[in-house]
Design a protein that fits this description.
Shape: globular
Number of helices: 13
Largest sheet: none
Distance between the termini: 24 Å
Number of strands: 0
Number of domains: 2
Structural class: mainly alpha
Order of helices and strands: HHHHHHHHHHHHH
Helix content: 55-70%
Strand content: under 5%
Length: 317
């Protein structure tokens, strides 16, 4: 709903869009961190064969099916060769770039999971994070800011290798108890990172007359600190107490949560249709705030209905 942030203008709409962009930038890194927190110890629940079966059926099949549906809706017909090419380059739907990344990370999890079996192996995981962080989160962004291009000697540390850092961080933060002092430091770094990204992007975008994307990298230090702060903050909230006060049951949360993947799969299609049919103003602050909530609720409703229908329910697992 906030896509206008990628088209620079001197309007208030772009300035607020940049605020939303900065505040919400943790979403993708935190999703990967959650995958690390919940999946790196999969061996305690099932074997590796079951792990791959579960992950690939849940991700690969819906990706192919919804890419096909989206392709047909956008092109009104089906050209197999064009579809295969666009699918391979994730041209059918921009947000589906995430699928090959997450499948790549799933392939690495069985290897990394071995390092979760003993407490002393944590040092190895921390070492991997530090190594990736130095190159991918610090050196590469600095080089990009100075020269705008990355030399080939750093190509080995570019995507998707940098995302391994989030996978491991999720596990480490989920299994490590942090003191209040450490959490405050983490929150400070997260807030500072968000402020640096906003004012840096704002200043240089105005200066260059175009959106400056030096800090539009999920694996830069700015993004890493923000993601860590959000992850830790959410971890230490007493959700049970909040749920009791709001009379929210675990069953209600589970039903809504089960629709999340389906919402991701269909929300761009639903948004496009609603925006065109209702002729909505994408620059409106309401479109990008209340509109986002309404879109989410509509998608949850659609996915919930689909999940009740035999056979086709598998396309929104």
């Amino acid at each position: 709903m906030n896509g206008i942030v990628h088209s620079y203008s001197t309007s208030r709409s772009w300035k607020t869009a940049l605020i939303f962009e900065v505040i919400c930038y943790w979403a993708v890194p935190v999703f990967i961190m959650l995958s690390g927190a919940t999946l790196l110890k999969y061996r305690e629940r099932y074997n590796t064969k079951t792990f791959f079966k579960k992950r690939f059926i849940k991700v690969l099949i819906p990706w192919i099916i919804w890419s096909l549906i989206t392709y047909i809706i956008k092109n009104k017909n089906l050209n197999i060769l064009t579809f295969v090419n666009d699918f391979a380059y994730t041209k059918i739907e921009g947000i589906y770039w995430f699928f090959p990344l997450i499948l790549y990370l799933y392939c690495l999890i069985p290897i990394l999971s071995i390092l979760t079996e003993k407490e002393e192996y944590k040092k190895t995981l921390i070492g991997i994070v530090i190594f990736i962080f130095i190159f991918k989160a610090i050196i590469v962004p600095i080089y990009r800011i100075i020269n705008k291009t990355i030399p080939s000697i750093f190509s080995y540390f570019l995507e998707p290798s940098g995302y391994i850092m989030f996978l491991i961080l999720g596990y480490l933060l989920a299994t490590t108890k942090l003191s209040k002092k450490k959490r405050i430091i983490i929150y400070f770094l997260g807030i500072l990172s968000a402020l640096i990204r906003y004012f840096y992007t704002y200043y240089f975008s105005i200066k260059e007359g175009a959106v400056n994307k030096d800090l539009f990298d999920y694996t830069s230090a700015i993004s890493v600190f923000l993601a860590i702060s959000v992850f830790v903050f959410i971890k230490y909230i007493d959700w049970k107490k909040i749920a009791e006060k709001l009379h929210i049951t675990s069953s209600m949360i589970s039903k809504i949560s089960s629709c999340s993947f389906g919402v991701y799969l269909i929300h761009k299609l639903v948004k496009s249709k609603l925006t065109n049919i209702l002729n909505l103003n994408i620059y409106s602050i309401w479109y990008r705030t209340i509109g986002a909530i309404i879109l989410y609720l509509i998608c949850v409703f659609i996915v919930y209905i689909i999940k009740k229908i035999p056979i086709i329910k598998n396309i929104v697992p």
